[in-house]
Amino acid sequence: MKITVDPARCQGYANCVAAAPDAFDIDDVTGKAVLLRTEGDPGEIREAARSCPVAAISVEG
Predict the structure, then answer these.
(1) Which domains does the chain have, with CATH numbers?
(2) Helix (H, G, I), strand (E, B) or coil at 18
(3) pTM
(4) Is the sign of the CA dihedral 52, 58, 55, 35 positive or negative?
(5) pLDDT band for position 61 (50/70/90)?
(6) Number of neighbouring beta carbons within 10 Å of residue 50
């Protein structure tokens, strides 16, 4: 599974953190989502991508 976060699109809503806290966090400096790790519950990671209101997360595979 390939997961990417587009920092230009991210607005820091943190929906991804709520859906998959082991995979995403909000950077303290930029206020944008960062990918912590690519392993994890695929369902949670896909839900995190779906819950992003600005579609800043993409999941392939």
Answers:
(1) 2-60 (3.30.70.20)
(2) helix
(3) 0.91
(4) positive
(5) confident
(6) 13
